[in-house]
Amino acid sequence: MRRRLLAVATRLFAERGIDRTSLRDVADAAHVTERLLHRHYAGKAALLDAVCARAARRDADRLERIAARPVPVVERVRAAAADAVAAAVSEPDDTTVVFRAYRPAVAERCRAVRAARHRYRVLFRALIAEGQRSGAFTTQVPADIVVDFFLGSVHHLSTWYRPADGRSVSDVGSVYADQLLDALRAARPAA
User: Fold this and answer.
1) What CATH number should be reported for the domain whose range is 52-185?
2) pTM value?
3) S-S: 16 plus which of 10, 20, 24, 111, CB 3.0-4.6 Å?
4) What confidence tier does 27 reach under pLDDT thresholds 50, 70, 90?
5) Minimal CA–CA distance to 172: which of 157, 183, 185?
6) Up-side HSE of residue 90: CA atoms within 13 Å toward CB?
7) Can you give the residue ranges of every domain in the chain?
8) In terms of Cα–Cα distance, which of 10, 5, 7 is closest to 34?
9) pLDDT tens sequence across 117-155
């Protein structure tokens, strides 16, 4: 039941927006009573917390496995970048909801939203920092800015990517990964 409620809430939050989706809307779309919905989730904030936490946990678990691979950091960053793109494209409703929930007005109300992306960002930032310490990447830009810039562009994918355009998820992931790695390898301009 919880899985079904999360799936319906995710779809409605993505389609209509968080503020324009009521608990009644979720209950109606899930073909349950509002009372049953309240048995599982105390309110919309709790439901949104659960949606964001589920998506963030899944993404962070994948990134953790990528980061632990016994391969050079450049290969792990490439894999992490391609995975972020694949997740954003294959789970566009999750990406849209998490991105919308990250707005300060929403995040202030929802505890899990504030923390939902933290573990993922920390893991991704650690990969970039490792590459910078090893000399594989430039240190011109702080790792946290690189991560925020990259993830911002990935979150934007759900607004334009359509499989019918002839670009596969793998193709888009490779382009994004190449762009990230090119930026990280950029040599300092001559003084």
Assistant:
1) 1.10.357.10
2) 0.80
3) 20
4) very high
5) 157
6) 12
7) 52-185
8) 5
9) 788 889 999 999 999 999 999 998 888 888 889 988 888
